[in-house]
């Protein structure tokens, strides 16, 4: 049994009750207990209620007030633990999923419950904050499921500690700054514009604000007194001359609102006909979410937010948030969001929740700072299990080539979650549709169908193995699976080169159901033989990098739209070709065609458009048509969600 | 000196430093100390960091887990203190302000610092949460100013505890539900629609979700089994048949984004040409903000959110949030927002921050629950000072006729904040423009100009007095004011019927500068001679109520647009004519014309449109053209806002 003081025993019942009922049946311990068990002192975190705490990445403002450190001061856990050694680093990916999901989050949580509550290991689970859009739409929550969940489940799924709200606010402040600046430039002379940007004070003296010096530096102007600028310099400084057609920055909302996918703004009489077509994305698709996930410190975040490119000037120069004077304000809006949120699993093991981009339209991994803090907290022999989004083709690929490249961290083991259900689909089973009852084929034994589908798993295994990590397949058992089917998956996984393949039942039994998986993961971590290998070096051209990834999908080639060609040429000219690539591709197939199951090959991958997230640090090709704003079904989840007003208990969250 | 354990002495310097520098020069005490001083125990609140705590209005979810009450359980402070007596209730309003503001928040905070830190009274300050829009736009923060501020000032102005973000999320979830529902109804038969709304489960049985029974009840259908509905009942139940032109519900954002004042949505190919013209308002203008401000309990909030009307069916019936099935989900999104946030002043007295609608476009008062909790906490002989927005013509009027009507609370004293600067403007001084240097007239003595402007103050005094409260004028002293000018204001105030008029310097000296004001307020509270009188009874017609308010503005009559006539007729037909009136009018004049200073009269008040906030509980006439979405200037405040990345210190917030 575990030496942890917060671990608690689960009493499991069968059949497995609804997720919310399980979550509500367990009384969480006060989060300060979880923190204590991680050797965190109260000046390492801020409480957000009784079950959530933000772990300090950077020192908190009140530190500057005092010379001595006391409980009022939030210390940077990262700075403090700089010297100490990391634990094992495990990433969880999956095979190409059905629309129902194959239990990747559930396996991530279940494995940690096994390691922490049954194998007496120091362990931290690193997961992404769910978007509220799907929570009220089709998908429901994302806290795991069955007896492997993060709790309190309602606090996990709603608001959390406000990080996504902060991203929405920052993203949209920048958007407002863009359109308003274009508007004001269109109605003012250089002189008037400059006078407003650098107004004289009471004594008639002008000055530049700090953020203005970033633009001056970019323009090669070293003067510090606004009055010294020549008319040409005034023009260069004050007039961003943004080309409205070049703007890639869109507004965001953490809601599934399909009617905002394409809109026209500026139709009010005061905006004098300066209408423009644009769109809203879901908040987790914001570049600011990617910045949060990939940043390494407050100072680094300030730089990344300031250099985000929103579009070009009419002469083709990239225009940044700092050019608009808003980089500092964006950082202020994000200053609390940089601290990961500590929560707990059903069995009382610690969880860090941070960042939460979708893996199909973004890079889909939780944050670097959360993983780094966790690796120090568990220390040598301990385990950090972090989740990558969707299939290993996108989630794990981006984890390796983008996240690990920026963090410098090296995983020892990659888990690929597989289910009999999904493999049957890849073997040719009928379509699986959310909200519709499952076809008979998925409820009765059909070993041949399973075996036929294992080609999908095999490619995920070999792709992931090629990074130099040991791959362990977690076979997430459903009640309808038969032993023959499960064994078929196991043999196929080993045949495809998996280090091990383990049948687990953490959904039905919690950590107890993932003990064998935990043991396999430990062995895999202790027996790494190769260094981390990336799929492509950064010094390749944008196209070469896209093609390297396309090849890993099984594509025979890549086809670029005119728009994509134009963008690639522009970004290369602007000097951004050295960035890694973040493909926006469907999670339902290796290819761009969601209907192509199994392991398709020989197809040509269409690149419809290419965007750049310069602040986050990647080039962002759109493979086929990818929606960045989900919609609501006829009967959204919200029909079932309510609150018991006498107890405050949330009902109907799934 | 005070018996409070948290009160601290201020060392004031002259000239008064920048607000943020003063705020940052004081180390706040841990908020649990402030709570303790109010006799709150840890199970009455949740910590949000070290300097903010949410005071529990309703019991917290974990209560239902246990029969015994322990620290895991959040108790309802309101329920617990039900029996105990209230303290004195003081509302702060102002004369018609200049665009620079006359220090209403500053006076509210300064008075409380005087009562708590110098007059040894139990006191709680109740203020509104500021909108982030103006914080990054023109106005800057709203924590008070000089040596009378709420701290930490940056936490007060940014995010706070997420209430406005929750309102934005809830408002926009409802908006998405409206357009998506119209879309789905347009593409589906009654039967298909009904099948999707009440899908059969594995056993083929259908059921209604709880929220659906609200609609069934409204339709007079008492059946509980979906299969029993007749085709006509299916049609009535499943088809809301919303008239797109009748939709008054708009999306919101807590950003000054003028380009969203008028937009066209639904232009994506998947939306099949179902385009619609709509707009974004700033979040604080959302009806949900008004619901939060006017609600009295979690159960009451659930009802109000469910009955919010978003528009009409094509046959003219109001369509509610519960008709759309989303009332419960909205309440879940708002479940934490209902708890007021406890903070502190520079001198360590307690502050409750809650709700924050603008008084020009909404009712502009902080929440009923915050005031109620505060009145119980201070108890008999204690003081609750609550702020009403802008001039007494709108802020105090709505406080009396809307807020007090719903809360049943009775104020003893109303403070009207006046400045020599604003009175000079009303006397005919040159225009005062934000961001532009003040005209000479405002910096040198001109008693005649001040006296000429006192007609504005006089009308605010007599209007406010007519509610039956004692009116105390707080003359907020600026360094450029002369004694003769200040005395002129004082005499004019007394002549106009003020109970007292006090010159105060809390901006320069903190509570010490408002001690005389505190003494005057205490006398005023102890010597109330009349009961509370409303300006109009609810059983008047909508027009009669509008006209009663217009008369108090000095108007000779009211002129209704065709649209306004149409809306009034509709709301009357729908049975909503018994609600109080919430005028949306400029704060810069008694009239609809912001340029008409002093005490204009004989004008005809134009009602451009009339809307209804049925959930919040008021009818909402638009007087002239009122923008519900501010814009950004050429050089927004955000140019100065940044963060010191080594200390985390926020800079440039004003």
Number of β-strand runs of chain A: 23
User: Strand count, sense and closure of the main sheet of chain A?
Assistant: 12 strands, mixed
Count of helix runs of chain A: 22
Oligomer: homodimer
Which features characterize this protein?
globular; twelve-stranded mixed beta sheet; 23 strands; alpha/beta; 15% strand; homodimer; 654 residues
Can you characterise this structure?
2 copies of one chain form a homodimer. Chain A has 654 residues and is of the alpha/beta class. Chain A contains 22 helices and 23 strands. In chain A, strands 1, 2, 3, 4, 5, 6, 13, 14, 15, 16, 17 and 18 form a 12-stranded mixed β-sheet that branches. In chain A, strand 1 (45-47) and strand 2 form a beta hairpin. In chain A, helix 7 runs antiparallel to helix 13. The longest helix of chain A has 25 residues, at 163-187. The radius of gyration of chain A is 25 Å and the shape is globular. The two termini of chain A are 31 Å apart. Residues 60-73 of chain A have low confidence and may be disordered.
């Amino acid at each position: 049994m575990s030496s942890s003081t917060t671990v608690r025993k689960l009493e499991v019942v069968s059949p497995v009750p609804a997720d919310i009922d399980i979550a509500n049946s367990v009384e969480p311990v006060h989060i300060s207990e979880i923190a204590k068990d991680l050797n965190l002192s109260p000046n390492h975190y801020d409480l957000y209620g009784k079950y959530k705490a933000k772990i300090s990445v950077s020192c908190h403002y009140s530190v500057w007030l005092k010379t001595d450190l006391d409980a009022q001061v939030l210390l940077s856990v990262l700075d403090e633990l700089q010297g100490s050694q990391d634990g094992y680093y495990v990433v969880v990916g999956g095979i190409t999923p059905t629309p129902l999901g194959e239990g990747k989050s559930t396996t991530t949580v279940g494995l940690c419950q096994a390691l922490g509550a049954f194998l007496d290991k120091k362990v931290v689970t690193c997961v992404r904050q769910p978007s509220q859009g799907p929570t009220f739409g089709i998908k429901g929550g994302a806290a795991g499921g069955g007896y492997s969940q993060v709790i309190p489940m309602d606090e996990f799924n709603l608001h959390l500690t406000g990080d996504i709200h902060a991203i929405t606010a920052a993203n949209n402040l920048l958007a407002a700054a863009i359109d308003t600046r274009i508007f004001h430039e269109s109605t003012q002379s250089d002189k008037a514009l400059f006078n407003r940007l650098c107004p004289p004070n009471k004594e008639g003296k002008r000055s530049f604000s700090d953020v203005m010096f970033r633009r001056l530096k970019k323009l090669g102007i070293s003067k510090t007194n606004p009055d010294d600028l020549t008319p040409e310099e005034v023009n260069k400084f004050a007039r961003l001359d943004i080309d409205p057609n070049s703007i890639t920055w869109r507004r965001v909302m953490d809601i599934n609102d399909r009617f905002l996918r394409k809109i026209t703004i500026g139709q009010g009489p005061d905006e004098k006909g300066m209408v423009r077509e644009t769109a809203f994305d879901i908040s987790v698709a914001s570049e600011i979410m990617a910045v949060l996930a990939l940043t390494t410190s407050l100072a680094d975040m300030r730089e990344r937010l300031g250099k985000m490119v929103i579009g070009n000037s009419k002469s083709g120069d990239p225009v940044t948030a700092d050019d608009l004077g808003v980089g500092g304000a964006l950082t202020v809006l994000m200053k609390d969001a940089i601290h990961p949120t500590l929560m707990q699993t059903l069995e009382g093991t610690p969880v860090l929740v941070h960042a939460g981009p979708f893996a199909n339209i973004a890079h889909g991994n939780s944050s670097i700072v959360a993983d780094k803090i966790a690796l120090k907290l568990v220390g040598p022999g301990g385990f950090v299990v972090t989740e990558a989004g969707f299939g290993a083709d996108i989630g794990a690929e981006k984890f390796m080539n983008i996240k690990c490249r920026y963090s410098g961290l090296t995983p020892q083991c990659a888990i690929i979650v597989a289910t009999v259900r999904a493999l049957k689909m890849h073997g040719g089973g009928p379509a699986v549709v959310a909200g519709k009852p499952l076809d008979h084929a998925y409820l009765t034994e059909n070993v041949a169908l399973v075996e036929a589908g294992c080609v999908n798993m095999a490619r995920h295994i070999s792709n992931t193995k090629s990074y130099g990590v040991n791959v362990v397949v977690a076979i997430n058992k459903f009640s309808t699976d038969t032993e023959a089917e499960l064994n078929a998956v196991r043999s196929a996984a080993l045949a495809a080169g998996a280090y091990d393949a383990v049948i687990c039942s953490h959904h039905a039994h919690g950590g107890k159901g993932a003990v064998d998986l935990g043991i396999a993961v430990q062995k895999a971590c202790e027996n790494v033989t190769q260094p981390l290998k990336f799929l492509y070096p950064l010094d390749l051209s944008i196209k070469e990098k896209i093609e390297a990834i396309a090849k890993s999908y099984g594509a025979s080639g890549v086809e670029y739209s005119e728009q994509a060609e134009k963008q690639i040429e522009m970004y290369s000219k602007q000097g951004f070709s050295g960035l890694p690539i973040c493909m926006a591709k469907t999670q339902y197939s290796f290819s761009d065609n969601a209907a192509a199951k199994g392991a398709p090959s020989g197809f040509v991958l269409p690149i419809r458009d290419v965007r750049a997230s310069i602040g986050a640090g990647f080039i962002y090709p759109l493979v086929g048509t990818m929606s960045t704003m989900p919609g609501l079904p006829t009967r959204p989840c919200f029909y079932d969600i309510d609150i018991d007003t006498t107890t405050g208990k949330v009902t109907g969250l799934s």
